Amino acid sequence: MAKQIKALKCPHCGSVKKQNIKEDHYICNNCGTEYFLDNDDINVNVKHQYGDGRFNGLDPKTKKYLFFVVAGILFFVIFSSIIRTCGNKSGGISTLVSSDDSPKKKEYVDRIKEYLAFTAYNSKNPMFLFIINRSKDAFSREGAEYFARFYDPLKEKIVNDIPLPGWKDDFYIQTRVFSDGGFYICADKSNKVYKIDPAKNEVIDVTNTFFGDVPEFSSGIATLKFTQDREGDGFNIMTNDGKEYYYYPLVRKIYKDHMQRREAGTGLSSLLPGARTSVYYTFSEKSSDYPEEKIQLIKYWYKNNSGYPIMLPYSYQVSWQKVYQYPKKSGIYYGSFPYTKKLVKEPRITKFVDLTPDRLYFKADIGYQDSTSLYITGLPDANPEGHTYIQKIDTESGKIIWTYTPKSDNYAVESDMYGYTGGVVFSYYDRSGASSSNRIIIIANDGTVLKDIDRDEIFKR
């Protein structure tokens, strides 16, 4: 019988779109149903598949796409397993697969040895520099690493870590701001000097820059340390051949002994052309010649050449005394001689004033001073067991801008203070609680306490 079907439709979905897979056998392009014609009865027979034929309900393109997706997933799982297995065999490290997403415990301990603070670049905020000891636990020193860590205390963020090769646990950091504005650090038993670069938050080794081409140091530097702050921008140097010098690198001047350096830093005759006048602050001491004179906060003007030796007076040299006018001829003289009442003898001090004439001071000291700021410490009265205060003093009027006293009943304020453009940073040791703590305090110029930090907990988080 002739075939009379004009439009053969899929018996499953009714679509006329199909593919001829062999004579009188078709597969629906829409639903994938396979059917064929029976020539004798003109019947449409549908071929149903079960079990492994469950994907026949999809068109061939979809089945092909799903095949590649499944194959890709299987390949990734198998390949990852092979890589992990090979890595464990070659590195000798066993990998534990765990569903615990908690952070892994650090395999080292960062211990703060020392710190300093300065003004962050293009900011009025402080930046800290910590000397960090990194070891396997809090007590071990063997195999420890040391580095300088720049830390933003207001943002509580580590900014940069700089390795310090050759640093030792018994090194004690010294810091100094030279007259060129540079912030320098060194360790008192080392032979290296570093300069802080606040723009990059880095420390730069300037040892060779300072000392490399000085003939007297040709044997090498054994140890170096800063001269005292009141002696200017210098170093005490011992060379490898055992010789000692005083060296002022900004002006490249070397002095063979203390007497030679003292002559360069005292008196008016040693001043060079272009000498400047700088302002400093100090407390006077009780006078034996004039016991009625109280301790005074003195502001004085001092002539000096930038970078050269200076000899600022110690407190014991700032005391009211009788300066006698003895005969200039040699001999032994008896009797009374005229004298004048003087507070200081150094002729480079051209002027001084009592900044706070109405105040009494007890165990007072200068905490920090620069060209615009003055911070002092002291006791509120004569009781030696009193609580130490920190005060910011107006450098023009002598008025107290703010006073800070720790809330603790038992503490000790550390001597090092660091001024920055927006305020001051200092530390105290709190002994009041069940466990003691080292506190770092950041106070703004207006007296606002910006941060009260437990130093020992900063890097334990």
TrEMBL record:
The chain crosses the membrane at residues 65-83. InterPro entries: Quinoprotein_ADH-like_sf (IPR011047). Keywords: Membrane, Transmembrane, Transmembrane helix. This is Uncharacterized protein.
